[in-house]
Amino acid sequence: MPIDGTARIARLMNVCDAIIDELQRQGAAEVMACRGFKLTEMAEAVIKAADGDVVTFRRYKS
């Protein structure tokens, strides 16, 4: 059953909140924000992995 747009966005926001909470717990939230961390990309990868799909890792050049 496909997920409608509202449910998809709600799931994405819940995952974003969980990622932010975890980064704050680890004391890394400010550093990640300063380095241009893309929260929604990570949240989408987390959702994809939770759904059982393969998640590829991108390597960024410095």
Beta fraction of the residues?
Answer: under 5%
Backbone shape: globular
Task: Provide the low-confidence segments as ranges.
Answer: none
Order of helices and strands: HHH
Q: Provide the gyration radius in Å.
A: 13 Å
Number of strands: 0
The computed structural class is: mainly alpha
How many helical stretches? 3
The mean pLDDT is 87
Instruction: Determine the N-to-C terminus distance.
Output: 41 Å
Estimate nothing, just give the exact number of structural domains. 1
Describe the protein's architecture and organization:
- This protein has 62 residues and is an all-alpha fold.
- The protein has one domain.
- 65% of the residues lie in helices and 0% in strands.
- The chain contains three helices and no strands.
- Helix 1 crosses helix 3.
- The radius of gyration is 13 Å and the shape is globular.
- The mean pLDDT is 87.
Lay out the secondary structure.
Blueprint: H1 5-26, H2 29-34, H3 39-50
Helix pairs in contact: 1-3
Task: Describe the structure in brief.
This protein is mainly α and about 60 residues long.
What are the main properties of this structure?
mainly alpha; 3 helices; 62 residues
